[in-house]
């Protein structure tokens, strides 16, 4: 999982580049000693970050990097900026204070601060992200070292030692290409329909993501071997396997092939799929599609995971035939769970294009993710086998499904849909039952939106099983199941109203009005639509280019407030990262701005309606969307 976020860095003074040609090295020499001692090297840390231009060697004192830097300056920065953004550190240290480069010991990813804490891993080297300095007149670079080594240097400097650092970096930027490897098992009757499996190859960790890439290869090998030995027939639909660089690979592939005649049924994305759960402090999980892409796939994966949990939740096998372990792996209890949609890997591209996608994310959080200790000893063959089983079970369920199986999948979606609706209605009732006088009207509006959203999502998931049939009779059965689930909606709304009435009585206030406001009526008439070719552009693209910076700032501030509330209430950072683009990906050419307001409020948190209107105005100004009036 490779995310474009920032990692704090500690300032130093060294030199420039990008794309390693020779092995970079950093040496420290204490005053009075002739032989420099290695402070960091690529062979030791496997992580050096560059910005062009060229190969270079330089040396500088650790406490005098520029005219504004005095004695002890590095030490003070060590203490003050350990959790600052890399961009801020480089801009200050390199481009304002005259440092040639930086060295960092910060080893906690920005999106994993709830799990890893400073001091947890003194011998671990983190993998950072470096700011984009393409517009700068000269390049710079950074070395990563362990916190233990950094504190040794700090203590030496604090004791009065003068440390001179020499950096050697041989690197340059050259044009290049990357490969996307694609393989298929063709469908026998519907080859124009595909189930796509993905794993990224570009990261160097054993779990992130050698494990996902290996699992994908084994899934392909197993399926082909069973077909070749005639243990199972060829699939009805094509199964496609994709390996490539994270985000860039699927984006490039989709850009070339998305507009063809092939129907993409679903995507299973393998990312960090082999952790030893005990060693890494992880939990086996499967990440759902966003609610903007409702699908049977969530119910199918939850059904598979429930089966796996049932027979693998104890070290002692409940039923040996269904125990999924490796003879060379652990006997850990599985205890897997489904997680709400989160960003951070290739599945999000498919989901945002309306192709249902889940991540088989065998472990998160992970104490060694994006670090020098993401090594094979942290993997577990049993977890790898369980990830393989989950994918194979899903592939067989989808790639072989025809009319009878479409009904079966519809029934699974109905059963799990009932559970999902019950959870959300319970949440809605809790909201109004705990409201204060001041926020009772807002809570009432929010609770109703949650209930309507839940029924819409689960009914759409049942109907999505229609992709497996062209039989009108089967489609009618699915429609009847969806309607059956929806029959409880009036009762659910009445339960919310009863809770609202009871709470208003307790507070001694009048029942809030449910009549739509003038702003809501106007928002109900406005329908945003994406322009062709602009399907994946989100708020980051729009906000960085729009001239109305004040409007963009208001939108960003409101979304940041939503993110902060979610974090306070326990949401993972990777779930929170989905917030800024979520409204844009609810756009389908049918939903009004008011509809999207309700859906967003239900899945995340309420956003002021005027802010959402401004949000879509920005997309229209940048030519990404048009807004039509009903």
Structure in words:
- The protein is an alpha/beta fold and 630 residues long.
- It has 4 domains: 25-169; 181-399, Aminopeptidase (3-Layer(aba) Sandwich), CATH 3.40.630; 404-514, Topoisomerase I, Chain A, domain 4, CATH 1.10.132; 518-531 and 541-630, no CATH class.
- The chain has helices spanning 42-45, 73-80, 86-93, 147-158, 210-228, 248-257, 277-280, 296-312, 347-352, 381-399, 403-433, 440-463, 472-486, 489-507, 518-525, 539-545, 549-568, 573-576, 593-603, 609-621; strands at 25-30, 37-41, 48-51, 56-61, 102-104, 140-144, 163-169, 181-185, 190-200, 237-244, 263-270, 285-287, 337-339, 357-361, 526-530, 625-629.
- It has a 7-stranded mixed sheet.
- Helix 12 (440-463) runs antiparallel to helix 14 (489-507).
- 46% of the residues are buried.
Got a strand count?
Answer: 16
| Strand adjacency order, main sheet | 8-10-9-11-14-12-13
CATH class category of the largest domain: Alpha Beta
Radius of gyration: 27 Å
């Amino acid at each position: 999982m490779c995310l474009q976020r920032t990692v704090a860095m500690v300032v130093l003074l060294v030199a420039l580049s990008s794309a390693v040609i020779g092995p970079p090295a950093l040496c420290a020499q204490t005053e009075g000693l002739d032989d420099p001692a290695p402070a960091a090297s690529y062979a030791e840390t496997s992580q050096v970050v560059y910005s062009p231009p060229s190969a270079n060697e330089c040396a500088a004192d650790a406490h005098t990097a520029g005219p504004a830097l005095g004695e002890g300056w590095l030490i003070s920065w060590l203490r003050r900026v350990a959790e600052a953004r890399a961009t801020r550190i480089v801009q200050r240290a390199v481009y304002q204070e005259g440092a040639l480069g930086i060295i960092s010991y910060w080893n906690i990813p920005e999106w994993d601060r709830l799990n890893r804490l400073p001091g947890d891993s003194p011998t671990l080297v983190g993998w950072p992200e470096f700011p984009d300095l393409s517009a700068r007149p000269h390049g710079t670079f950074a070395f990563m070292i362990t916190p233990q080594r950094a504190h040794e240097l700090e203590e030496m400097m604090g004791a009065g030692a003068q440390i001179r650092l020499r950096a050697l970096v041989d690197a340059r930027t050259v044009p290049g290409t990357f490969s996307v490897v694609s393989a298929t098992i063709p469908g026998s009757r519907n080859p124009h329909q595909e189930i796509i499996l993905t794993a990224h190859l570009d990261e160097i960790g054993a779990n992130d993501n050698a494990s996902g890439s290996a699992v994908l290869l084994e899934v392909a090998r197993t399926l082909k071997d069973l077909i070749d030995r005639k243990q199972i027939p060829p699939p009805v639909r094509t199964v496609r396997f994709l390996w490539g660089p994270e985000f860039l690979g699927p984006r490039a592939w989709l850009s070339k092939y998305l507009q063809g005649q092939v129907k993409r049924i679903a995507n299973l994305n393998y990312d960090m799929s082999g952790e030893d759960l005990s060693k890494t402090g992880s939990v086996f999980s499967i990440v759902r599609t966003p609610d903007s892409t409702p699908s049977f796939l969530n119910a199918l994966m939850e059904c598979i995971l429930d089966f796996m949990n049932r027979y693998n939740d104890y070290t002692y096998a409940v039923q040996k035939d269904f125990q999924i372990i490796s003879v060379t792996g652990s006997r850990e209890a599985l205890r897997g769970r489904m997680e709400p949609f989160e960003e951070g890997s290739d599945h999000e591209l498919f989901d945002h294009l309306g192709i249902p996608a889940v991540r088989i994310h065998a472990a998160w959080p992970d104490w060694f993710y994006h670090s020098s200790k993401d090594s094979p000893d942290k993997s577990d063959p049993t977890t790898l086998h369980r990830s393989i089983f989950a994918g194979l079970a899903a592939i067989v369920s989808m790639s072989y499904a025809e009319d009878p199986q479409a009904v079966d999948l519809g029934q699974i979606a109905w059963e799990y849909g009932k559970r999902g609706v019950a959870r959300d209605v319970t949440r809605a009732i809790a909201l109004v039952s705990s409201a204060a006088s001041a926020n009772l009207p807002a809570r009432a509006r929010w609770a109703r939106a949650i209930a309507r959203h839940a029924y819409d999502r689960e009914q759409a998931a049942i109907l999505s099983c229609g992709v497996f049939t062209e039989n009108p009779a089967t489609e009618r059965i699915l429609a009847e199941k969806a309607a059956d689930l929806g029959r409880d909606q009036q009762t659910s709304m009445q339960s919310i109203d009863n809770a609202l009435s009871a709470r208003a009585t307790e507070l001694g206030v009048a029942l809030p009005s449910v009549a739509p406001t003038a702003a809501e009526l106007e928002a109900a008439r406005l329908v945003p639509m994406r322009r062709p070719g602009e399907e994946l552009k989100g708020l980051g693209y729009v906000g960085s280019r729009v001239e109305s910076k004040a409007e963009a700032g208001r939108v960003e501030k409101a979304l940041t407030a939503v993110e902060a509330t979610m974090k306070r209430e326990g949401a993972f950072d990777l779930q929170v990262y989905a917030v800024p683009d979520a409204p844009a990906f609810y756009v389908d050419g049918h939903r009004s701005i008011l509809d999207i307001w309700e859906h967003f409020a239900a899945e995340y948190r309420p956003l002021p309606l005027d802010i959402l209107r401004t949000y879509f105005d920005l997309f229209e100004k940048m030519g990404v969307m048009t807004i039509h009036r009903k």
